[in-house]
Amino acid sequence: MHMTAKAVPGQLIVSRQASQVAREASARIAEALRDAITRMGKATIALSGGNTPRESYALLARAEGIDWSKVHVFWVDERAVPPGDDRSNYRWAKAELLDRAPIPPDQVHRMMADSADLAAAAGDYEHTIREHVEPDDDGVPAFNVIVLGVGDDGHTASLFPGESTVDVTDRLVAAVPARGAREARLTLTPPVLERARSVFVLAVGSSKRRALEAVWATVGDVHETPARVIGRCRGSVTWIIDHAAGGLPEPGPSAPVTG
Ligand code: 6PG
What we know:
By secondary structure, the protein is of the alpha/beta class. The chain contains seven helices and ten strands. The strands form two sheets. A seven-stranded mixed sheet has the order 3-2-5-8-9-1-10. Strands 4-7-6 form a three-stranded antiparallel sheet. Helix 1 crosses helix 2 and helix 2 (54-61) runs parallel beside helix 3 (89-98). 46% of the residues are buried. The structure holds 6-phosphogluconic acid.
């Protein structure tokens, strides 16, 4: 299937390489944080795990003009592993961002997916979000920034194909049961993703091409391709990808292509 940029919900930025994706992403996330701090006196951001955003987080830590004392950091999702585990999303955000930027420790809100009672941990995290994240008009917290990735199978956050989590509307955080080799998780739910003021979706490499085609197709099933929930986001959505992920013609040697 050949996709056009017109089907993409939001702005599409295609870079030549992963390093450019990271530069674009960190610059735009930094701008969104600075803007929130200017307007609201604080900024809230929820981070995804996975490999793709790591370099962006490292660059973000060095971005100029962010008053980190005003930033609250949350997670989009987390695996049921200890915080030092290689699979822990906290572990990588800590190594790349938290250890490099002067964020007050009490403003770093780890998702406790290593807790014995995941349902209770989900409820506690919802409480923490409500405490720190300004609500939208309908009372649902609206993060200033949410960073998302897309899995090769079309998942985003920990909303996986075939799981009912993508249908959750009455909770901000849900527990996702372990399945096969996949460990149990905690994840933000669609209502929270939908209300973020700025969503940045990062995808790199040809393994993402089919997933992005399914996400961007004008017709499709959110249960088969949960990342289609991104199409419901009410704020700004920016897709920052490389040409391999988009299956798009390689851009010329100059600047990124914006569509
Ligand atoms: C996770 C994520 C997940 C991730 C995608 C893409 O913890 O796994 O938050 O939703 O964004 O799986 O992962 P990659 O960046 O590794 O491709």
